[in-house]
Amino acid sequence: MDMDGSRQQQRRGSPPEASGRPRTVPIAVTPEGFWCCPSPAALHKSLLKNPHHHPHAKHAPAPPTHKTPSAPPSRAPSVQTAPSVTDDPAPAVTDDQQHHNHSQATTEAPAPAGGQQEPPPQQHKVCVGFGRPETSDLTVMLYGKEGIAVRMSVHRDVLSQSSAFFAQRLAAAGNPAPAPPPCVEIHDCDDAEIYVETVGLMYCDEAKHRLLLKQSVPRVLRIMKAADALGFHACVTSCLHYLEAVPWDGDEEERSVVSSVRRLQSRDKDDGCNYYGGVVTPLLKRIASDDCLRPPSDTFASITEMVLTSTDDRGRREMKALVLNLLKDSTRSHGVGVTGGDGSPPDVISSAETLYSSCRGCLDRLRELFAEASSSEPDYYCPAVVTRRIALETDNLLWLVEMLMLASQRAGDGFVALWSGQAELAASHARVPAPSRHAVSRVTARLLVGVGRGELLPPRDARLRLLQVWLHPLIDDYAWLQRCGGSRPSSASFDRRLVEDGIGQTILTLPLEDQRSILLAWFGRFLKLGDDCPNLQRAFEVWWRRTFVRPYVLRQPDSDAGDVSPAP
Description:
6-stranded mixed beta sheet, At3g05675-like_ankyrin, At3g05675-like ankyrin-like domain-containing protein, At3g05675-like
């Protein structure tokens, strides 16, 4: 990047390094304390724009000692080149010095994160260089993709003290001073920009504070990966502290953080070390509890109870929608229908008994409200507060039914049996004014739609009892259901066609004799009520064909074969 003289002079006037550190930091440093390293794309662009850089050819396999490039640090005045901290011109490199540098000892190492791999079969060019060779005693060469190469003139004591990887490589090199500075080569570096920045952090006493400045979570994850590959444990710990404190943006970023941290934790255990255990555990507590692997059932029961006892209409409505949507997402995450992959209910609803208990409480309160409403002196008069409470308990029941259907099909079928057994409640239904009672028939309509669409599969006796107990009250309330359905929220709107199809399909699942009795009773009600009665003509047509047409068709082959059938 371009830096004018004033900014460079300002950097030269920065506070001196701590004792034991080199006086001249061999890197370009941003105001935040990081190396000014361009991205890999910028490095490649610099390579194309600067053809005068010296090429670095692939090492020959025969000689035991490999060669290193002798080009000085890149000082091209472009945004792709990071200048040194100092402004002094680099000394000219003579042919003798080039020959001397080519003969110096080198240590070639694969990328720490990439395993032991051969150098890429391509030529590299030094796109950018960091530091001043005359003030350093170690050269680090990073060979990345697309021919990118980065040279860093650094200090072996700093890297050896900070990085286990460099300590091992430099110990293997064994070059005592005042021998020529060794060169450590890292091939197949997939993230040269971050590797340069990570090496720069080895010169910072407070890497944690540097990381907290203007760094995004994805970039910190990249730094942590490079630092872990280099054995830079202090930097990895700082990254973990940062990730534990910073908010994560969305599910995808959370998955990336957790995946990286768990991979770090797993390898830490495999190596028999415990470098990061004290930091990883608090970080993972953000997404998992130590008490149990599955959410406790009493937590869900507490949430359900708070929603059911809410006194604010808007808050209750929004929280019902929120919990229901979260349960739907939970069931979809299991991947097999509405249950887990092993047939068990979702983790959130570990037992349907909690919901059944809430349903029984709603039914008990409905019976009390119906008794209070039917005891009113004037005919067809009911206090407004009672009407409102009936509507509230009905809405609560509908919410519980939806959650039971999400928990498992068996749980939903159980509620069909529970609702069809409320003969006492259905009997008192006729004594309550229609404006107050009609909301209860919405429960019946929802169950019939569920059976008609195959969402619920209760046994035949439960289906028959449901129709026998609750179809007549539903027809009585049908006009009010249509009248009030359009003024309700979209989640509680009344779809006449859907309800009529559900009633008809449920009737047609019964034996033919039961179909006959129920449809003939409907036929008489429809002739009296017209549009105020469900239109079950499609179910009636199917029953008609089954009763009058299909038996005749089935007898045709017998008559063709010579069987004499009695005349109709």
